[in-house]
Amino acid sequence: MSGEGERGGFGRGRGRGDRGRGRGRGRGRGRGRGRGDRDENVWTPVTKLGRLVKEGKISSIEEIFLFSLPVKEAEIIDFFLKDRLQDEVMKIMPVQKQSSAGQRTRFKAFVAVGDSAGHIGLGVKCSAEVATAIRGAITAAKLNVAPVRRGFWGRKSGLPHTVPCKVTGKCGSVRVRLIPAPRGTGLVSSLAGKKLLHMAGVDDCYSSARGHTRTMGNYIKAIFYALRNTYGYLSPELWKEQALPSSPYQEHTDFLSKKAL
Fold this sequence. Notes:
Elements: H1 2-6, H2 14-37, H3 48-54, H4 61-66, H5 74-81, E1 86-99, E2 102-114, E3 119-127, H6 130-143, E4 146-147, E5 167-171, E6 174-180, E7 187-188, H7 191-200, E8 205-210, H8 216-228, H9 248-251, H10 253-257
Parallel strand pairs: 7-8
Antiparallel strand pairs: 1-2, 2-3, 3-4, 5-6, 6-8
């Protein structure tokens, strides 16, 4: 009997039970303590731009657009536009792929984000689950945020309310043209077009579309490209020469040369 007690690990004896309980308790405590010390919501930047933003070296998102710095972290957009940014699911559609085992169905989500004050983003993500596709599309939309230039129709009084000039965007067979409109006209567009224009901060605008606009994905992409093109035209009030300051990467070289903690 004493031999069986020593060899408890080979049967349902006390030795195996004790070992099992001890291991379970130890791992559980260790894992719990580790999670408690580290807050999952704290953003740890991994890019140079993210480090500059978190340390307050870049004061506004316009500095990023001025130097055309690529944004690789969605938290950078959240840092500047967190309270004002709104997201809207524009369309969810199933897509299928033929495989050897049959058809594989996934879901494609189109999500727009904007602050109704001159910033708009559009993201597309495909995933096996709807919720995962929407989350991924929101992140992609934040990484695609672009500035929208607004202007006036006629008299330049009050705040800018329409697009500064006629702009065109195209995707697939769809061509969308945005035309400045007088104050008080409202948004003359389809339901999806009104949502995008409102999120971009445009109050009055005419729109003209041609092509297969029933393809919602291409239609909203064309509108997004048109809004993004508003900063592609150099109007006379922008003809003055302005000295371009040094890039944030160059200005804060000493800070970036330090090893990130």
